[in-house]
Amino acid sequence: MAPMTKHGLGPVHVIGGGLAGSEAAWALARAGVPVCLHEMRPVQKTAAHQSGDLGELVCSNSLRSDDAGGNAVGLLHEELRRAGSLVMASADRNRVPAGSALAVDRVSFAKAITAQLESEPLITITREEITTLPPADWDSVIVATGPLTSPALGQAIADLTGEEELAFFDAIAPIAYKDSIDFSKTWFQSRYDKTGPGSTGADYINCPLDEATYNRFVDELIAGEKTEFKEWEDTTPYFEGCLPIEVMAARGRETLRFGPMKPVGLTNPHDPETKPHAIVQLRQDNALGTLYNLVGFQTKLKYAEQTRIFSMIPGLENVSFARLGGLHRNTFLNSPRLLNETLEIKRRPGLRFAGQITGVEGYVESAAIGLLAGRFAAAQRLDMAVTPPPPTTALGALLGHITGGHLSVSPGDSGSPRSFQPMNINFGLFPAMDTPTRDDDGKRLRGKQKTVARKRLISARALADLAVWLEDTNRAAAE
């Protein structure tokens, strides 16, 4: 049990030490509220984690675009930084080159989060599995067990909510040793030579495929032996933003060429006159630059098949893998029906959910909902008004999607329900703004220029509104 503060505040219990749980615990402690953080690893392992560190990344090492002016996730990055995010502070300190994206050394990133939480006097970390719903004397709880919620706790949550369990599969991409890649066939270059903090515009390893090689590769992906599903998993849908590479290939022969293997914005210096039919990119995965992951190559192929099929890629004929791809099952709530605007279960005040289990997708989105859950629980514990962020902000837009912004009926339908699905942050979740027709110099904007200008206006509005919200909530906390 976490200690009482000098003001006599009892602890808020946070279940789960992933990105959302870590962020929630940090937000509570920063507000002066004691926390008991429960994490089952390493006592109880999961199908995807490899350590007992808090905030461990289990899929890609990328937090995606860091462009706060023209990309929704980049905007979310900046909002989290301004709100005092632990995850973003750790990411910024442990970033590795990735063009305009924010990628991290996954090991040092998780260790930094763990060290911060362990050194915070108001946070007590207990290594134990919580298998039932919290007891009545835990009057404030945040469940942030993520997509890998243990079966026992998952069943308890299902019993409480009365909802049929919803699930999808999330796949992990392989990680290769750099020194096993053949650089006589590959080259370093970011798409369109894009740069970012600490990068040179040559942050990705590119492997070119001609048409014949690409077609053989697609054939083998489709025919390769896959992980077998259990009978009760057969109808579980995938999340569209993280499809296994072989599932994408089966949707059409050209699907990969317009997805993770698109050959645009790149020139092969070994043969500059020949345009590759498709390109596989690898992105740095650790600070030492010894590990690279295959971008977009999450897979449910069996291990032997991965080694055989991926060695067909030019430059990877003799590749050695530090980790092969895999597949794990994710669970999430029907949040629009179950949660209120402060992430509490409507039928049980004081019990909040955070992270991917609420129906957001992505590292940063999970951390964002954790931060909000922590701030909401802290305000409640301190007898302050619980004020959600404005819907014009990335934080507010994401919260709105999972707690009420999702349509329960499809447009044009005769009242049939539409299932709630996880979503990354995107500009489609923000309140609309008029599209500008001219730039600052009075020149008429056309086509893509209008879209870029609109995104930058949305971002500017978001950061301005966030500043007001943070100032108001910080002032209330100080009074």
Q: How far is the N terminus from the C terminus?
A: 28 Å
Could you state the CATH homologous superfamily of the largest domain? FAD/NAD(P)-binding domain
Elements, N to C (H/E) = EHEEHHEEHEEHEEEEHHEEHEEHEEHHH
Major sheet: order of its strands? 6-2-1-7-17-16
Helical stretch count?
12
CATH architecture of the largest domain: 3-Layer(bba) Sandwich
Mind summarizing the main beta sheet? Answer: 6 strands, mixed
Quaternary organization: single chain
Structure description:
The structure is a single chain. With 479 residues, the protein is of the alpha+beta class. It folds into 2 domains: 12-163 and 333-424 and 464-478, FAD/NAD(P)-binding domain (3-Layer(bba) Sandwich); 171-329, Beta Barrel (Elongation Factor Tu (Ef-tu), domain 3), CATH 2.40.30.260. Helix content is 31%, strand content 15%. The protein contains 12 helices and 17 strands. It has helices at residues 19-30, 72-82, 86-93, 106-118, 151-161, 211-223, 245-250, 303-310, 335-338, 363-381, 394-405, 448-478; strands spanning 12-15, 35-39, 62-65, 95-96, 101-104, 123-127, 141-143, 166-172, 175-177, 187-188, 204-209, 278-284, 291-294, 321-323, 326-332, 344-345, 348-353. The strands form 4 sheets. Strands 6-2-1-7-17-16 form a 6-stranded mixed beta sheet, covered by helices on one side. The protein has a 6-stranded antiparallel beta sheet with strand order 10-11-12-13-9-14. It has a 3-stranded antiparallel beta sheet with strand order 3-5-4. α2 (72-82) packs parallel to α12 and α3 (86-93) packs across α4 (106-118). The longest helix has 31 residues, at 448-478. The two termini are 28 Å apart.
